[in-house]
Amino acid sequence: MKKLICILIFGMTLLSCNNVSKENNTSISGTKTEKVDSLKIPKVSMTSSGSLEPSKDIILNRFNFSIVQNKKGDTTFLATRDAKFKTPEGYSVGDQFKDISQLEKNRIFKDPGYGYLIKLNSGWQLGFCEGNSCTDNIPTENSIIKWIQKHK
Prior knowledge:
With 152 residues, the chain is of the alpha+beta class. The chain is built from 2 helices and 11 strands, in the order αβββββββαββββ.
């Protein structure tokens, strides 16, 4: 019986060490703690290989986009995975590589660790992710457009 009481007292002592008052977010030791739900973790977008930049999600002309802006507020990067968006050339996320004209396929380039991109005359780029690194292999005829982006 003594052993059980000692274990209970020891357990209660351990539990009380991390007790936090909900009213003022102060622990028993008096140090301030921060609620996890109040943390603001900024959204970032990968804009090229090894480049993560703060971004925000917007709806533009009924389409979902992520944008990156510079300090002046000018948009420097725009990307979408919204299949309803079409480039001026008529391409959408989900379209297959085989549906792209040969002239445009000839413009494909590899951004290591980011993906394969095809630059269109409109300035938009079609993004392909192949394999674990997104550049493990060149897109095949059945590869699909994963995202569409534009650098300004």
